[in-house]
Write a structure and sequence with these properties.
The protein is of the alpha/beta class. The protein has six helices and eight strands. It has a single domain, classed as TIM Barrel (Alpha-Beta Barrel), CATH 3.20.20.70. An eight-stranded parallel beta barrel has the order 1-2-3-4-5-6-7-8, surrounded by five helices.
Length: about 210
Amino acid sequence: MPTSSRPLVAYVVQSGLRPKYGVYTDAYGLEMTFDDDWDVDVVMFSKPKLIEHIATQTGIHESSSISLGLTQPTDSNEYASWQLVDLTRRLARKQISPGLKPLIVARSVGDLERFTTAQSLLRDLEFAVSLRIDLGADAESFPATVLACRDMLEAHFAGCYRLLIYSTSTPEKLLEALPVAGIDGVFCPGSEYAEMLPLMSAAVSAFPHH
């Protein structure tokens, strides 16, 4: 399935000590401040129950540019269109839920290739992958790693995916590390809309091949 050519910015929202209130305020803040003129797609990830709370308490899921994603598999996905599949967490459940677009997170191109090529359903889905990068230790090898990953994905899933960078660094550090040819966006494993807004607003100019 052909994928969008727009940059993709995805994050797992930090919910804090009051999870429902935390995700609600984040979603509402994003809904009120996101500029529809930004040519970028955004995915906000959280637990299934919290995604349901976001969707029923705000209108964010009605946006054409903002989508909701699940951090865990579930049988009910009424409001979500994405699912996080984290290969970096040993105990995380790694199956892909029917009807959802997976964002697959991996530490290496090898891990990513072993998982994706075993998933025949990916050939009929739009999906995204995110490589975990240490922006300090991996800085010199980063462009070559991105190229190797894109070559692998093109060989198996040409036109069906978007390739993101994932780091535990702050969104500001991610922005400093760009642009890198071959990258379609960024994924932050724990953040909030206020930190992500600079990445969203800068996404189009940050990714030079769009």
